[in-house]
Amino acid sequence: MISAWITIATTITVIAMLLYTKVRSDAVFLSAICVLYVSGVLDANEAFSGFSSQAVIVTAILSIVVVGVQQTGLLQWMVKNIFGHPNGYPKTLLRMMLPVAALSSFINNTTVAMLFCSIVKLWAQKLGISPLRLYIPMIYAVLMGGVCTLIGTPSNLVISELYSEATGKTMNMFAPFVPGVICLVVGMAFIIFMRRLQPEHNAPESAFELTSDYTVELLVPSDNPYIGMTVAEAGLAKVNGGRIIEIIHFDEVISPAENEPIMGGDRLIFAGRIEEILELKKTHGLVNAENHVFSMSEVDRKRQLLTAYVKIGSSLIGSTLGYGTFQKEHNLTLVAVARRGERLDVSPREVKLKAGDTLLLECPPKLKFHHEKLDSQLQFFDSSEVVNFGSGIIISSIIITVMLVLIALNVVSLLEGTILAAFAMVIFRCCSIEQAMNSLNWRLLIGMAGSIVLGMAMQKTGIAEEMSQGILNVCGTHPIVVMAAICLIATLITQLVMNVAVGAMFFPIMYNAAVNIGYDPFTFLIALMVAVNAAFATPIGAPANMLVYGPGGYRFSDYMRIGIPLVIIINIVGIAAACFMFPLTRF
User: Fold this and answer.
1) Nearest-CA neighbor of 543 among 510, 501, 574?
2) Where would I find the beta strands (DSSP E) of 407-509?
3) Are strands 358-363 and 304-310 parallel, antiparallel or unpaired?
4) How far is the C-alpha of 66 from the C-alpha of 436, rounded, in Å?
5) Which domains are assigned to the chain?
6) Spatial distance between the Cα atoms of 76 and 84, rounded to a whole number of angstroms
């Protein structure tokens, strides 16, 4: 009994910390594992069995296969030859969602989302469409496509492994394929026909379309001839290409500034075009403010401008970069800030950052590849890395095709197939050993391991049995009603918590409920796979959603407006498709 209460408290604490704190998810799950072990709920083998889980190992090895595919340029080549110049918004959505969903069926959906964020942005500019009208449909296609195979999303891997442990039977890699494809077709049709639900506000990139147009900060030297005059008298209130926003006397910020007298050491903040505002250095004897950058001609050739987005949960939220050590620690300078597609006309150093804010940064080349601490704070999409197309495309395509065929035909197991493919990627130099090791997403792997352990604790302590019995007491014993009730609860939670965790925690509940009413749990678990991946209503239910939250300048309501009806539709279709493909059978 005590063990059950400890497990309940631990599970609630994990969910609360993931929702309401900025603590890293891997640290949260590691702490949960330690609590369950130290308290005696699980022994050592059970507590740390998640790290030897086949689902975790397959996910890790697949990341090596994926990096080989990426480095050879296979994905980019496919996109280049699949995307075209469709006429009309509906055709554009269809042309984009089909290849994205297909790739997501075999490659981790977060990886696919990261790749296509940059591609979709450039493609949208070419077509004259705002990227934010494509980002959400792209992410939804990624999430729906991932359901179609066991390797498309980590939650499917976890559920399939737990099923194998419980029954001794192995799920085929394409077990959820037909229900997944049916849900995908219905989901894409809904997105296309209900396109009016798409947000219409500006994309953040529009604020920085011209990198010459942003906030400029200039300093008044102590010998400036305009000292003593007001800003207006000095002719600085309105200037060619811009206007003054505020003036900073020491630590005092004054706005409006037109009638403020100018003193030596003042900082004048302008908004407008760089080239024209910088003429004030010549005409009015102003100089560059310390640590601020205004145009690429003024910075070291070894530095560059990059666009980044403040992640949900970032410790930068609520802070002002001008008063901390963040810029100095990472050797970068904040040049401008945009929010929901509009450049903020205030000094960048004074802006209190919010999730999704777009930052224009001056920094060293490949900053994001050398500062791992930035990964939890900012999401970069600009990249100076150019993939060279060559013979590696043919090699990597052969490797990935052979892997999928061998696994599909049960010639090798899922684990064996991914291991062979990963070795082949390294041996044939599709990627280096260093790239392979760097591809491992330890935060995801630890989160998966911790989720599996939590599910195990719920099963061992009888919580899953009690919860499934409670659902049966309320819903009766009709299999479809029971299936729908559990899927509904799981879907609600997956809007707020990682789908891997939800899949691991709800597996024993769904499994026990099916067994208790005398039905084969296989159909129930296929429906659960669909439910835990229907994270469409919020930006925090899946990592892929968060990747476009900042770039799209979205609000929570943007996800809810189109996501809530889509969640309902996909759950109904998912349950119906699972029952159609795998008719309910009694033991």
Assistant:
1) 501
2) none
3) antiparallel
4) 9
5) 213-294 (3.30.70.1450), 298-380 (3.30.70.1450)
6) 13
**Torsional sign, CA 563, 567, 573, 574:** positive
Q: How far is CA 533 from the centre of its chain?
A: 14
Q: Report the distance separating Cα 271 and Cα 239, nearest Å.
A: 10
Angstrom distance (rounded) from CA 587 to CA 511? 13
- The Cα 32–Cα 8 span in angstroms is 11
Residues 6+ apart with CB under 8 A from 170: 160, 164, 413
Q: Pick the closest to residue 96 from 37, 136, 63 (CA basis).
A: 136
Contacts 24+ apart (CB under 8 A), 83-88: 83/119, 83/123, 85/126, 85/127, 86/127
Tokens of 38: 């130290």
Give per-residue pLDDT as tens, 342-392: 667 666 777 888 877 778 776 666 554 445 567 667 777 654 444 445 677
**What is this structure's pTM?**
0.70
Q: Mind giving me the DSSP string for 17-65?
A: HHHH--S-HHHHHHHHHHHHHHTTSS-HHHHTGGGG-HHHHHHHHHHHH
